[in-house]
Amino acid sequence: TQPPCHRPKGARLRNHQVDALAGRAVEYRLLPMRQPHVLLVEHDSVLRQILCEALAEEGFAVSAHRSIADALTSGPEPGTDLILADVWGVASEALQEDQRAQVEQLAAIAPIVLLTAHRWTERDDPAALGAAAVVYKPFDLDTLVTALRTVLGGRGSG
User: Fold this and answer.
1) CA 4 → CA 23, 38, 88, 115, 128, distances in Å?
2) Distances (CA, A) of 95 to 72, 98, 100, 125, 152
3) Where are the beta strands (DSSP E) in 3-68?
4) pTM of the full predicted structure?
């Protein structure tokens, strides 16, 4: 008899074939899973560092920028799967036109999850800007990771 199939952590089963009628063993090939890549935009350097470390521990590859303008100027890294961006409005009430345009540009690159501590979302619809989700500050890390994985369709399990 064949030993059971054990997959190393981070591997996925590919080309799984079983021919029970012919009595053949399971044929499989293991490929390492690519970590989902998150482009993080956070103006607060301490929170940016904490999020980079926490998301890496949760199974994400992370690159970080201090502003949306910096992220757009640098251009996203190839393979960016999701953008997590801190966005705030003027006097916490509304986004300026340039902020709206920047968020829309990011959303055209990859699905975007917006972080915010402000109530601009009451006046500007995040979905109309292309946002897949919004997470309000202060937030629990589990809530943030769940939102990211939901947008990624479950990828990014650590």
Assistant:
1) 16, 35, 52, 44, 49
2) 18, 8, 6, 10, 26
3) 11-17, 27-32, 37-41, 61-65
4) 0.71
